[in-house]
Amino acid sequence: MTLQGGLAGALNDSALLQLVGMVRDTGYRFVTVSPMTHQRVNSRPGNESAVNLAGVFGWSRPFSQQILPVGMFELMRHADALVEIGKEWKSKIRISTLDDKFFVHSAYPTISSDSVFFGPDTYRFTSAIMAHLEACKTPIRRAVDICCGAGSGAIVIAKAVSDAEIVMTDINSAALRLARVNAALADVHNAKPYLSSILSAVEGTFDLIVANPPYLVDSSLRAYRHGGGPLGASLSLAIVESAIERLASAGMLSFTPAPRSSMALTRSRRSRDSSLARRTSHGPTKKLTPTYSGRARVRAIPKCRPHRSGGADGKKKVSVMAAVKSKETGHDRDSAGNELHRLLSSFNRKRLSPGLPTPSWRRDIDEMAALLRLEGEFLEAQRQAVRESASAAPVDPAGSRHGLRASR
């Protein structure tokens, strides 16, 4: 078994529950940070080894058996949560706290294909869910957490709506195992895990659908990170398309497809016009309208309005590209650069504005790619323009000092 991997079927649930209970009784608290912050903190002098439980179960540092309370090391051994690192040991799991709840997930760094993620996005995700539940006027009888991971979304809902049926789906069996353990830790009995790609293995409609899917482009295609497609958005789009068909009347979909963003769509029988409206032969048109929940910024899946080639923006783009590709320098290039910045600023403002995906989302993505290529052409032209002078620049300390004095 690898340090982070092989969690499915490896951890002893009973021993793991006892272990977390023992850790909780010590007054343990740990808010998980981003991987980059985790790396920086652990790389500081003095943080090479753990000196307390936060170092063991939070920062994932090597530790000596002597720093643990009596009996805890044996529980870790029975839970198969230990790996030997030279003369020290390391925990295969992390334990994070969210309000009064404890969550078990994969140790840092999460490098295995079956790693179970929990981090800053999780706190934003659950905060948005709680804000919706507090404001929700519609009874929630059935809810599902898609790509549930450690089960945070499902558990938050289950605690708030104890008489509802809560479904947890994921394609990672290790995630479902820890989601079940975390539900037990939270004394939740109305949440059930399903090994399922989105909603393929579950039936029926839902009053609330939540999801915190991966949105990155991961070269190793690890399930907890890779969002699919060239931009990492394929899974998010698939979730929206699937969820739309499975929302009950007046149901809601809330998901976080990117950092500091969430998306919520409500379905209303009274609405008549929408780009995502679906007319059926059995009833009136139903509409998906955006709502805002949580402290996180709310927006739809990356949204942009296409620049029509015959319009003003299209002409601007053509002229900017021509100027970028030309070999002229000076005023024309500066003007092209300014125009490019204005074009990119306008594009990003539209793309990041809260709103629903448009029917032309494929064209919108093509537009995004075209603008990125345009930006790349501009930067390459700038590099070519200064390459000759840059190659003549001194690289030794003495020459650099001389050059600086000469430029004064």
Summarize this structure briefly.
With 408 residues, this protein is α/β, with parallel strands linked by helices.
Question: Would you write up a description of this structure?
Answer:
By secondary structure, the protein is an alpha/beta fold. The chain has three domains: 13-106, no CATH class; 120-298, Rossmann fold, CATH 3.40.50.150; 312-389. The chain is 40% helix and 18% strand. It contains twelve helices and 13 strands. It has helices at 13-25, 35-42, 53-58, 72-78, 120-135, 152-160, 173-185, 234-246, 312-325, 331-352, 361-391, 397-407, and strands spanning 82-85, 88-91, 93-98, 101-106, 142-146, 165-170, 191-195, 206-211, 247-255, 261-268, 278-280, 283-290, 297-298. Strands 5, 6, 7, 8, 9, 10, 11, 12 and 13 form a nine-stranded mixed β-sheet that branches. The protein has a two-stranded antiparallel ribbon with strand order 1-2. Helix 6 (152-160) links the parallel strand 5 and strand 6 (165-170). Helix 1 packs antiparallel against helix 4 (72-78) and helix 1 packs across helix 7. The model is unreliable at 1-10 and 258-331 (pLDDT under 50).
Give the topology, please.
Elements: H1 13-25, H2 35-42, H3 53-58, H4 72-78, E1 82-85, E2 88-91, E3 93-98, E4 101-106, H5 120-135, E5 142-146, H6 152-160, E6 165-170, H7 173-185, E7 191-195, E8 206-211, H8 234-246, E9 247-255, E10 261-268, E11 278-280, E12 283-290, E13 297-298, H9 312-325, H10 331-352, H11 361-391, H12 397-407
Parallel strand pairs: 5-6, 5-8, 6-7, 8-9, 10-13
Antiparallel strand pairs: 1-2, 3-4, 9-10, 10-12, 11-12
